[in-house]
Amino acid sequence: MTHQLSGSPFLKPFFLKAPVRVVSPLRQRRHTLPASEFRNLTPQDAISVFEIEREAFVSVSGECPLTLDEVLNFLGQCPELSLGWFEEGQLVAFIIGSGWDKERLSQEAMTQHIPGSSTVHIHVLSVHRHCRQQGKGSILLWRYLQYLRCMPGLRRAVLICEDFLVPFYHKAGFKERGPSAITVSNMHFQEMEYLLRGQAYTRRNSGC
Fold this sequence. Notes:
alpha+beta, 25% helix, 29% strand, globular, disordered C terminus
């Protein structure tokens, strides 16, 4: 028996007389990475995180929310407050947060993590340039907020953003708290708050 093979719709099929070896799905699965995976980040992810962040922010504002040293610091101190989206092993989007114990964010919140606090300060949400305009930022933020809801003791998530991003965070359920006291270079920000009350929304494989 001959077997017809075609590697491309633009190539004519050719024939082999030898039987084609079929690899079982179980063997294939051992050598392939998950198509899509969400997990906490580790210090080993810091370089990928910083490269995505630098490309996303420096071209727009000239400033990175976090330096590489700060990324390493937060991923070392509070990796449980981060979330990365990986596709076939490559980081495509991420969020980094830390603990904060005051009612409003201050300049010190940009570099500090307060263990055991009930507030999560979201420092940065960023998406790889090849994956933008696909809704990945909204999906990752939704998953992150539901993940935080599963963590005992957390009461709210807060962040600062420029005015043009306020509608994006409104859609995710954040409320404005007014102008932030934090300034970076000549940029001014709005402070936003999301209350983590109640249980996570029911969803298969939510992990709660």
